[in-house]
Amino acid sequence: MSTPILETKGLCRSFGAVIAAKDINVRIEAGEVVGVIGSNGAGKTTFINMVTGYLPPSSGDIRFEGHTLIGKAPRKIIRMGMARSFQVAQLFPELSVLENMLIALVAAESPRPSFLNPVSTPARLRQADEILTEFGVERFRDSLVSAVPQGARKLIDIAMALIGTPRMLLLDEPTSGVSVEEKFPLMDTVMRAVRHHGVTVLFVEHDMEIVERYVSRVLAFYSGEIISDGIPAQVFADNRVRELVIGHGHGAPASEKSRSKA
Ligand SMILES: Nc1ncnc2c1ncn2[C@@H]1O[C@H](COP(=O)(O)OP(=O)(O)OP(=O)(O)O)[C@@H](O)[C@H]1O
């Protein structure tokens, strides 16, 4: 059996009396697109935070391409090939999009970047322009990030996470705060880029239409546990998921909407 790109074994995390992760065992193969769903407080962010080194588990193991991530700092995990973008784009709002991109390029080149040397080299400018074009946000190149629409900001943040050629990308609610008109084009752009770069993706998402359209597998969390794991149709048909996840203020998948209209 080949080594999975990500594997967790017996992963647990408590905050005092609250059990935010309870015996999480998942195995993700390279090339999968995995959606993580669950109601508020189900443990989705706790799971992502543990996998990316922001939160130490209380017990259990996490392996990326067979190497343990336990005890490793977020920067080290990024260098191993696992990138992350956050619910709120982590950009410098008072710098231009291009300046943000150049900083990300410098940071990806060296573990201890020196900003005493020129940041804006011809090679980096070319690379920044290529990335902005790939993500369809080149028209914002010279705008301040603070003046850029939310959807484009998210794309820029995800584009920056892909600098350094990670093999896995974790996204925390890529479409949150993005308008209904923007959400599908945004996801189309992201998925095209990750396919192009051969990146395995796992993303937390509250919008079931997005989950249904883009993922090959769903992990449904409830109260710190994975209550269902499978292809979207299977997970959305699961009675516990319907009762505990989809029934709790989450947008129903399109297939559910058409079923209830019939
Ligand atoms: N730093 C913390 N200190 C104390 N309790 C925490 C902390 N982080 C998370 N929790 C608790 O752990 C549980 C899981 O929280 P988590 O943020 O992982 O859920 P979530 O599924 O990401 O929710 P949401 O969709 O609202 O972001 C919740 O009960 C939460 O209150």
Automatic annotation (TrEMBL):
Gene3D superfamilies: P-loop containing nucleotide triphosphate hydrolases. Pfam families: ABC_tran (PF00005). Residues 6-248 form the ABC transporter domain. GO terms for molecular function: ATP binding. It comes from the Bacteria. It comes from Magnetospirillum sulfuroxidans. This is ABC transporter ATP-binding protein. Keywords: ATP-binding, Nucleotide-binding, Transport. The lineage of its organism: Bacteria, Pseudomonadati, Pseudomonadota, Alphaproteobacteria, Rhodospirillales.
